[in-house]
From TrEMBL:
Predominant cellular place of this UniProt entry's protein: membrane
Residues passing through the membrane, by range: 70-89, 96-115, 160-178, 208-225, 256-278
Superkingdom: Bacteria
Keyword Transmembrane helix recorded: yes
Protein name, per record: Sugar ABC transporter permease
InterPro entries in alphabetical order: MetI-like, MetI-like_sf, Sugar_ABC_transporter
Keyword check for Cytoplasm: no
Source species taxonomy: Bacteria, Pseudomonadati, Pseudomonadota, Alphaproteobacteria, Hyphomicrobiales
Protein family per UniProt: Belongs to the binding-protein-dependent transport system permease family.
Stretches assigned to the ABC transmembrane type-1 domain: 66-277
Compartments it resides in: Cell membrane
């Protein structure tokens, strides 16, 4: 039986497509335009080819910022994905505890990024911050402004506190969707707790884990507001990630050409890594 496709439905999404084109595609084309041209003001542009791209790729500044960003994303994913799974596994599946836990998990996600940065900036101060004064009272040397290790630890703990809830909620959604019959069959077979997780829960969470992995990678790789508020990219350039370096170049130095080229390279790196992660995880799922 041949199906008749109703293409009139496309007219319903046309306004959305136009909005996306206006808010995303047009600014992107502007950035592309700046990346291949040079200007000396008065709205006069001169063709520059791919010189800005080669300058960025040959710059140690870019590769150092990229290395710091990749390191930060790697640490965040290594901590938040297993931690989110662990918390989701121990959350109640029924009763009054369910809405309480869900609300508590959602609270950090409701706080704006700049507010999160401000909270941890004050929280970590040695003179007035609860964390800073407590560590100082315990005799532990802590100063995220002057110490590189302390600055990194502060940003990592801050991001874990802010975004692990997202992984928890996604994993919890995958867990509650598993039919009770699977657990009953595992109980009859005498399966251990690890076996239930390995052969029942983890396979059923693969889809939501893929979403969690991609969302947390993209967000941690593009992080800007929180480290900018807390450390400003310091001490030195130790927490100057690609996003912060890009803003410094575009706004601080007003080097629009190199900044535009860096932003396109930045975008392509995120797109490429996300595609690799998605391909690897979906291919392993199909093989299983």
């Amino acid at each position: 039986m041949n199906k008749t496709w109703n293409n009139k439905a496309w007219f319903m999404v046309l306004p959305v497509l136009l909005l996306v084109a206006f808010s995303a595609v047009i600014p992107l084309m502007t950035v592309v335009n700046y990346s291949v041209q040079d200007t000396f003001g008065n709205n006069q542009f001169f063709w520059n080819g791919v010189s800005w791209f080669s300058d960025v790729l040959e710059s140690d500044r870019f590769w150092q910022a990229l290395g710091r960003t990749l390191l930060f994303s790697g640490i965040i994913l290594t901590i938040q994905i297993p931690l989110g799974i662990l918390i989701a596994l121990n959350m109640p599946k029924k009763g009054l505890g369910v809405p309480v836990c869900l609300v508590l998990m959602a609270l950090p996600l409701l706080i704006p990024w700049n507010v999160v940065g401000t909270i941890w900036q004050v929280f970590g101060r040695v003179d007035i911050g609860l964390l800073g004064r407590t560590l100082d009272a315990l005799g532990i040397s802590y100063n995220y402004v002057n110490n590189v290790f302390d600055a990194w630890m502060t940003l990592i703990v801050m991001d874990v506190w802010h975004w692990t809830s997202l992984v928890v909620l996604l994993c919890y959604a995958g867990l509650v969707s598993i039919p009770e019959a699977y657990y009953q069959a595992a109980k009859i077979d005498g399966a251990s707790r690890w076996a239930v997780f390995r052969y029942i829960q983890l396979p059923k969470m693969k889809r939501v884990l893929l979403i969690a992995f991609l969302l947390r990678f993209m967000d941690s790789f593009m992080i800007y507001t929180e480290p900018f508020v807390v450390t400003g990219g310091g001490p030195g350039n130790s927490t100057t990630f690609l996003s912060i370096d890009l803003v410094k170049m575009a706004i601080g130095q007003f080097d629009l050409g190199p900044a535009a080229a860096m932003s396109i390279i930045y975008f392509l790196i995120i797109l490429l890594l996300s595609w690799i992660f998605y391909t690897v995880m979906t291919s392993s799922d199909e093989q299983a």
